[in-house]
Amino acid sequence: MQKLAILALVLAITTAKFVDTHTSLAQINADPFGHVILSAIKAHLLAQTPANEVNMLLNGVGAGIVQDQNDHDHAFELDTTTNNRIVEDLEKEILYHQNQISSNTQLRVDTIEALAVSEEDIRVTIQDIANNEATYAREEATRNQQHETFVAKVAAIDDVIDAIDEAAKLIQHLSLGASFAQLKTKYDTLHKKLSDNTSHSALLQPVITALTELTTHGVNQKALTKIAQLLSEIRQQLVSEKATKTDVEDRQAAHWAEFSVHLANEHTRLVERKAQLEVQIQEQKDTIEDAQSWIEFHTLELENSEERLAGQQAWYAVQSQIYETQTAERQAQQDIVDRLQEHISEKLSTTAQFIASRN
């Protein structure tokens, strides 16, 4: 009874192993790779080759799988290195274009602000030039008027001085014994000239009165002496007046000469400033235009670099997926080879029976 129980146990274990082996081999056979390997093993078994050759076959297949994986590992490592370099370069490109966009944007903003200041400066400068020219024209007209007035007044003074001198000569002739009748024509001409004068009528009135008295009271030495003294005093006043007006004229002329030079220098400075601002404004406009062009250029380049980076990352993701998938496939194939080697070394007869029975 005990022997029968042991025999039943051995039979049960053997049956279980056969079932397990059969199930495992069926799973291997269902795999395309496993099916090919089993077909190769079947060919060897039909040719009644030694078992060690079957093992050599499986060892060769396993070695091929390992070599394929090593080659794939190396190729993927190269792909990874290349990808990392390309990604790094593209990220640098992206950062560069971003920085260029930022710097040119700031340059454009700053230059627009500077342009507004320059345009205000040139507006003020143009107004200053107009004011300068208006001041020059006004002051020049004033100076010309002053000079014309001076010339007219000096001419009037000279006319009065000439008349006074003529009167002095008349009095001198009378003092030397000339009769009034002899000088009547000169007297009448001189009297009219003095009476018609309007610029110094108040100053000349005493002389006119004194000369008139000569015709009514007669000529006497005392009256002539008085008139001569009056004429001398009036002449001195006229000479003093002329000197005063000449001094004023000289000072006004000197002031205008200095002020006109100042206005001319200021005008030159303002015109040069206007020209500088015009150049500066054009340069600022060019800078704004260039900055805008660079912004547009680097924006396009940024988009291109980002697209290339996305494409590179997508390509590497595909390569990574292929690597993982093929690595998993090789691991599965290696597992099949390992299981077959285990079955052949430990359960050769069962394996052979399964292989012989498969289609």
Fold and architecture overview:
With 359 residues, the chain is an all-alpha fold. 93% of the residues lie in helices and 0% in strands. The chain contains seven helices and no strands. It has helices at residues 2-30, 32-46, 51-175, 184-196, 201-217, 221-346, 348-357. Helix 2 packs antiparallel against helix 3 (51-175). The protein is rod-shaped, with a radius of gyration of 65 Å. The model is unreliable at 1-19 (pLDDT under 50).
In short:
93% of the residues lie in helices and 0% in strands.
List keywords for this structure.
mainly alpha, 7 helices
Topology:
Elements: H1 2-30, H2 32-46, H3 51-175, H4 184-196, H5 201-217, H6 221-346, H7 348-357
Helix pairs in contact: 1-2, 1-6, 1-7, 2-3, 3-4, 3-6, 4-5, 5-6, 6-7
Beta content comes to under 5%
DSSP summary: helix tally: 7
**Which residue ranges are poorly predicted, with pLDDT under 50 across at least 5 consecutive positions?**
1-19
* Integer average pLDDT: 85
Give the % helix: over 70%
Describe the biggest sheet? none
Instruction: Tell me the total number of β-strands.
Output: 0
Taken in chain order, the helices and strands follow as HHHHHHH
Radius of gyration: 65 Å
- Give the N-terminus to C-terminus distance in angstroms: 43 Å
Q: What structural class do the secondary elements suggest? A: mainly alpha
The outline comes out as rod-shaped
Signal peptide: 1-16
Keywords: Signal
